[in-house]
Every structure is written in C-alpha cells, then in structure tokens.
Design brief:
alpha+beta, 7 strands, 33% helix, two-stranded antiparallel sheet
Length: 136
Amino acid sequence: MRFDTKIAVVLRDDLLPWQELNVTAFLVSGIATSAPGLVGEAYRDADGTAYLPMLRQPVVVLTASADVLAAARVRALGRGIPLVVYTRDLFATGHDAANRAAVAAVRGDDLDLVGIGLRGPRNAVDKVVKGSRMHP
C-alpha cells in the first residue's frame, strides 16, 4: 500500500543505542497523537487477547549530523510541516513539564536537536530530510 503521507524520524548520528531508542519512542508518540486517524484498530490474537493499536503506516528512521537536523527543522517550519523535537537537554529531565520547560528556555535556532519527527506529504518530507540517511 502506498500512502500519500510519510512519517520520518531523524536521529542525530552520534547517539548511544539506548538514546536512539528513547528518542525514537518519544518522537513517534508525538506523531501518533498529532492527527485523528493515524492510529489503526486494536490487535487481537487467535485466543481473543486484545493488544493496543499502532500507527497505520510505516515509520522511516534516518540519521543525520547536527547541522542536517537543524536545517531539516528550518525546512519543515518553512513548509508548514508540524514536527516534534527532542533536544539533548531532555536526557536530563524526568517528566513532561520539565521537558517542555527545557525546550521553552532555548531559542529555536539554538536548540541542541538530537532528533525530530514529522509527518507530511511524501515529496515535502523527502525534501525536508534531505542530507539524512537510512538508519543502519
């Protein structure tokens, strides 16, 4: 199935494995809650056990340098594509309010981005993430 939109997560290329997983989980949670209909129906196994639903479409996970991440942020904003950000400061916070405060304390151009997530028209997302590469 081909989707009109694309979901992409771009991680900074110098993260530790646990950081990559943590950042990806948080970024995808932002995308999943960003619009109605992104999450499918609940799953059920042959025994009737119910499981939580997931996103309806694939998520592309990419890596990039700090400069490419910063440029992608600017391109997304310029195209009106909403994005979710994760900054290095968030590794030291312990809850949602502290996360928001850490981001609010820094000007957008000065955010120390370690990851971004976005969903938008396929071609536009491809242009926004230009310079990133598939996660190994």
